[in-house]
Structures are given as C-alpha cells and as structure tokens.
Design brief:
Layout: E1 2-6, E2 12-18, E3 21-28, H1 34-46, E4 55-56, E5 60-65, E6 70-75, H2 82-88, H3 91-110, E7 114-117, H4 119-131, H5 138-152, E8 157-160, E9 173-176, E10 179-182, H6 193-204, H7 208-212, H8 219-237, H9 241-258, H10 265-279
Helix pairs in contact: 3-6, 3-8, 4-5, 5-9, 5-10, 6-8, 6-9, 9-10
Length: 285
Amino acid sequence: MKILIKGNSGCSIEIVQKGTNLILQKGSSNTAYIPRLIKQFEKQSQFDAPSNNHIKIPAIYEICKKSNSVIGKMEYVYSKNFINFFETAGFEQIQHFAKTIIQFLDYEISHSPRKKICPKTLIYKIDSIGQNISTTDKTSQELLNRVANECRSLTSIDIPVGLCHGDLTLSNILFNGSDCYLIDFLDSYIESPLMDIVKIRQDTCFGWSQLMCRQSFDKIRLSLILKKIDCLVDNHFRQYKWYVQYYRIFQIINFCRILPYARSKRVDVFLRKNIELLLNGGDYV
C-alpha cells in the first residue's frame, strides 16, 4: 500500500506499508537539490537529541542514493501539525510545549561550546544572498547593503557553536501526545543553537508558518498562543548575553535568506516589513 502526501519542499513524499509498519519515504530527482536532501537525512540520523526530553526524532532506516535521485526511508509518526494541535490545546499543553522547546534549546546550548565568529562570515552570507537577487532589484540590494553595514559594525561575535536543527519552525514539528517530533533538518552556515532560537521565533514572534498555511484556523487564538510562547522563549534566553547582543542581527539575516525565494507579493511584503522593523530596532509586528 502506498499513500501519496504533499510537502512544501517539492520532494515526493509517500507512506508505504511494510507488514504492520508504516514507513515514510521522502525523495527527489532534482539534481541540484539531491546533495542538500542527503545532508538533511544524514543530519537527522546523526543528531544527538536529549534522552530525557519530550523531543523525539524519527529514525532514518535507509538512504537510497542513485546518480539522479535519492530516497530517504524513515519512521512514520502518527501526529498533528501545529495548526491542529493549537486549535484544541489547553493552557497546560501550551505551557508543556513551550517548556519542551526551551529545554531542547538549553540542551543544545549545553552541548555547544562558545566560539568567536568573524563578522565577515555574516557579510559573506549577505553577499551570497545578493547573488541570488536580480541586480535590477535595487530595493532588495539596498536593503542587503544596510544589513551588511550593520554587520561591519560588529567587532566580534561570541556565540555557542555545535548542535543545531537548522530549520526549527513549527511546520517542522509534529505533535504526538506530549511528544514533539522534529523533521526536515537543515545544514546552517553557522551550526549554533542561536540559529534554532531565531527559527522558532520566526514563527512565535512573526508568524511565518501560519503565513504559509493553507488550511483554515482561528487566527486570533493562534496569535495569542504564539505570543505567549514567544514571551516565554524570549524571557528565558535573555539570561544569555550573546542572545541579547546577536539575536536581532541573526533574525534579520534569516529573513534576508528567504527573500530570494519569495514567490508571492504577500510573502515578499512580509519579509521586507520585518527586515525593516528589525533594522529599526523593533521586534514584535
């Protein structure tokens, strides 16, 4: 038995029954995307998750590599997405989720020694973003120049480097009872827990994943829930000087990285508005 389902990455995704078990198969024949997908599978299979936390990672059973395609076979998790979970979640469940994510990020921090990063690393990343934006798009190029100038004002960047999911958004978290399953790992240009804080707040503070959501939901309820979670996350990590110093610039670069891939006016406006907001020292929309 095979069940085809649709993802957001352009990959083929299907659920295959093997005896009494269900296996999720994710694959691609896009030769440009294959190396990235292989890194996803390898990172997911090798990621060192805390054993005493409610964070789980679906097991990777096999990575089938061919010259023009790759398929990853992994554990299928019976679960809810974040929209369905928050639609019915009570206060205690919301508190539990926030606590679980914070504990996971603290675990990453405890396993990531502090390291000094040269500001040129950020400038090189901005330059690479600019190469993916048309030279005729003067507005975007000027925006990137402003970001690069802010990075040039930094003398050094001292942050924890080590463990990092790479794309810790709500759309990459599956909810199963009291457990959260992390999927779709990504390599990051800096493997830092700060990157994961940036990505989760991309949702809790700015509402990225709900912008991408096609199903109907109670927008007011979700907004209140996300604001509550965001306050808990932000208040907790303010104990770290590096978070207070560098969160804003890393969030700016995070939104800049998405800018070349904006495929709709709505997403483009969302990104530019929030980049401007952050450049001007703001946070909440």
